[in-house]
């Protein structure tokens, strides 16, 4: 089996986006604050990666309030789940072939 870079999703080349998607696969939704703490990132760094995932329609954003405080949560879309699963499946296939 030859390694075909085109079969890997470029959006998931970044470890932060892989971390975000992994967290979202395991949770129905997760808040910005919780993602920030989980991944140990700055606001700006996390926000830029979330924007990339949102622009690719891999996540949805819900902005609301808890009391008077703003609360932004994120959820994975069906498209995002499928794209992430395909990316991981190809990586697993490559690893198995190399053994």
TrEMBL record:
Residues 16-95 form the Winged helix DNA-binding domain. Pfam families: HTH_34. It comes from the Bacteria. GO terms for biological process: regulation of DNA-templated transcription. This is Transcriptional regulator. It comes from Faecalibacter macacae.
């Amino acid at each position: 089996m030859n390694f075909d870079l085109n079969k890997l999703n470029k959006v998931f080349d970044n470890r932060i986006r892989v971390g975000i998607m992994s967290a979202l696969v395991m949770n129905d939704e997760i808040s910005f604050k919780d993602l920030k703490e989980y991944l140990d990132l700055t606001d700006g760094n996390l926000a830029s990666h979330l924007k990339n995932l949102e622009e690719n329609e891999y996540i949805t954003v819900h902005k609301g309030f808890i009391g008077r405080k703003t609360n932004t949560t994120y959820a994975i879309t069906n498209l995002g789940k499928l794209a992430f699963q395909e990316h991981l499946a190809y990586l697993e296939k490559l690893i198995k072939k190399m053994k």
